[in-house]
Write a structure and sequence with these properties.
Strand order of the largest sheet: 5-6-7
Distance between the termini: 76 Å
Shape: globular
Radius of gyration: 30 Å
Number of strands: 9
Helix content: 55-70%
Largest sheet: 3 strands, antiparallel
Length: 681
């Protein structure tokens, strides 16, 4: 069976989807007989799938080639189905699918080594032994990646061979969830210390103007400035094009914005979308400088290198011109001026170009290599900064601790001659690329920029994703405050003390239950409240313990509120009701309602005290105003969002998707009345 070579808008051949569905239904003996077109000149039964025709933006070719001969023949059919399933049904980008494919190669090689030469031999014991071996030798992150892909493979085997693999699939799901908790917080969640960032930018500006460096390096330093000023993703940076800076008038002021390609924002085979972001003055200057350097790079190429470059562009964009028998020797003489100008314009399309070939540098790893060179070149300036111990801990570090890496970064073309022994123990300070994104996002947030603007600037689809980047600093500060409060009632062992007796302010039984939960967590992670607060926060961060919507986060807040009550503490001095942040989400409504209830209790308690102490009446009024502000800015809007969700999808569906909100959903009407009563009293 062969479909016509008629391509769909997404890139796949017509009938590919139907043929993909059909091939999964036929018996094992007939599978090799059924063949169909996937892409122009690419058929299902081919051992090499070259999907490079989908590469419309000159990205690295390696992600578009699937060499199925690397996978044992017994598993090859299933691997092909996984790849197609991810492209067709899950709308994954080719780069993501290629990562899955690479992990399948690893998985199948392990099976073959262990004698599991046929998918029929895969059992729960085989799977558990494999995962157990991986856990001993690899990071949780790597194990999760393998488990996810192995699960995809098992689901395909289950479907096409009609096997019952539910137990294995569920085991891998649970294992992935379990390990995911221990992956820790990635460095991308960390804000770059201001003093380090300022110095890094100064070094980048200086290097961009330093003619002793090659042009590609100087272009990179401009791109680094743009990254720090816009927070764009690393691949977005690698795909930056010239001529994309625009200016609009806003009142009497001119505002610059940059159009660029965003692979992350694309869906499925569409791969990318065109988007834009606001440009600062520094970012604008860096972009214009990068354009100048890219133009200079093309113009300064030797005649032979330029001829090779022009001939390549000619073949790709002007195939009819090749009928004139144009070759590298005559390309410069055979082209008319208009064609030459068009070719030159194409050559200068992208900013990140090789000073050796004049071609676009296609892989983000090249950006990382130039970044390492930049850090090495500026080691003295970046290491001799007056940073606090805390700020030093927040930096990333790398070593050049192998001869191979030494030769790569200190070999030919390096400006200074150094010995390996002199540098092998140096810890080079840097911050990874994604931290620039976090920092830009956080800075916008701290300036009071509306969340919708931040979301658009960072090209996030969901507000929640934006908050993922900006919440760290706020929550960390709040965590520190909470820990300080808990220290007031901690024991000599560094654990929270249980309450006894009666209290009109807090529910003793509920309070003690949560205290015991926190103490259990502290013991399990070898933390006590008498430790240095920085160390405690570091442990909590690694355990993801301070995320807003997790169990401990909620538990921690309610306990701290209880401590505040017990201390007769006017908690408005130590909470965050004045922040004024409104999220377009109802996911934290249970936590915020609990805060409202606790706050109400505190206000009632303090009112009673204020009857005997006139000086405290002003504080009570302040607390009341703070709570009104919190309700109007946060909780009331969350209720509206949740009501709309329930109205749209039904109560049962909302509870299924958000089980932690079941109680809140069921008593939403009463909660609304309770809040209205308080606001109108």
């Amino acid at each position: 069976m062969k479909a016509e070579v008629l391509m769909l808008s997404g890139g796949l051949a017509e009938n590919c989807i139907q043929n993909f569905c059909d091939i999964k239904k036929i018996n094992k003996e007939e599978r090799n007989k059924l063949n169909f077109l996937i892409l122009e000149n690419v058929y299902f039964n081919d051992d090499m799938w070259d999907l490079s025709k989908l590469n419309k933006f000159n990205r690295s070719e390696v992600h578009y080639k699937f060499k199925f001969s690397s996978i044992d023949t017994q598993y090859r059919y299933y691997a092909k189905l996984v790849v197609l399933n991810e492209i067709i049904n899950n709308k994954c980008k080719i780069q993501t699918v290629h990562k899955y494919y690479a992990n399948m190669v690893t998985i199948v090689k392990y099976f073959i080594r262990e004698g599991v030469i046929d998918p029929l031999l895969i059992s729960s014991t085989v799977i558990k032994n494999y995962i157990g071996k991986l856990e001993k030798e690899n990071s949780p992150l790597y194990v999760v990646k393998i488990a996810v892909v192995l699960n995809k493979l098992l689901k395909v085997i289950e479907e096409v061979d009609n096997r019952e693999l539910k137990i294995m699939i569920e085991y891998l799901d649970e294992k992935s969830k379990e390990l995911d908790k221990f992956r820790g917080i990635k460095s991308k969640n960390e804000y770059i210390p201001d003093i380090f960032l300022d110095n890094l930018l100064k070094c980048a500006i200086d290097d961009s103007q330093n003619e002793k460096y090659n042009l590609t390096y100087r272009i990179f330093t401009c791109l680094l400035i743009i990254l720090a000023e816009t927070g764009m993703r690393i691949e977005e940076l690698s795909l930056l094009e010239s001529g994309q800076l625009n200016t609009v008038k806003v009142g009497d002021r001119e505002v610059n914005y940059l159009n660029f390609i965003s692979p992350k924002a694309g869906v499925g085979l569409s791969e990318v979308k065109f988007t834009y972001c606001y440009m600062t003055d520094l970012g604008t200057s860096a972009y214009r400088r990068a354009e100048e350097l890219s133009n200079l790079l093309i113009e300064s190429l030797s005649s032979n290198v330029k001829a090779k470059l022009f001939l390549k562009i000619l073949k790709e964009h002007f195939p009819k011109a090749m009928e004139k028998n144009i070759n590298i020797k005559n390309v410069n003489n055979e082209l008319d001026s208009d064609t030459t100008n068009m070719i030159a314009k194409i050559a200068k399309k992208y900013l990140f170009l090789s000073h050796i070939t004049g071609m676009k540098i296609g892989h983000v790893s090249n950006l990382r290599e130039y970044y390492i060179r930049f850090i090495i070149n500026n080691y003295d300036k970046l290491s001799n900064i007056d940073l606090s111990d805390k700020e030093k801990e927040e930096l990333n570090y790398f070593n050049i601790n192998s001869i191979a890496r030494f030769e790569k970064f200190f070999g030919r073309g390096n400006l200074e001659i150094v010995n390996f022994d002199d540098i092998k123990n140096i810890k080079y300070p840097y911050v990874n690329f994604h931290r620039f994104r976090v920092t830009v996002c956080t800075k916008l947030f701290k300036k009071g920029i509306p969340l919708d603007y931040i979301r658009n600037h960072m090209n996030h689809i969901e507000n929640d994703m934006t908050m993922y980047y900006i919440k760290t600093e706020k929550i960390q500060d709040e965590l520190k405050e909470n820990i300080e409060m808990m220290k007031l009632v901690s024991s000599e062992e560094g654990l929270l003390k249980l309450e006894d007796g009666n209290s009109e302010i807090i529910d003793i039984e509920e309070y003690n239950e949560k205290v015991e939960r926190i103490n259990k967590f502290l013991k399990e992670n070898k933390v006590n409240l008498n430790m240095d607060i920085t160390k405690i926060v570091k442990v909590f961060k690694k355990m993801n313990a301070f995320v807003l919507d997790n169990d401990l986060g909620i538990c921690l807040r309610t306990v701290v509120n209880g401590i505040c009550n017990r201390q007769k503490y006017f908690s408005s001095l130590n909470d965050n009701y004045h922040i004024g942040l409104t999220l377009n989400t109802f996911k934290y409504i249970d936590c915020n309602y609990d805060r409202f209830v606790q706050k109400k209790k505190i206000i009632d308690h303090n009112r009673a005290i204020a009857k005997e102490d006139e000086d405290l009446k002003f504080e009570v009024e302040r607390e009341c105003k703070a709570l009104v502000y919190f309700l109007e800015k946060t909780l009331v809007k969350e209720i509206e969002l949740l009501e709309n969700e329930v109205s749209k999808f039904g109560k049962d569906d909302v509870i299924r998707r958000f089980p932690n909100l079941s109680e809140t959903v069921n008593k939403l009407g009463n909660i609304k009345k309770e809040i209205n009563v308080w606001l109108n009293h």
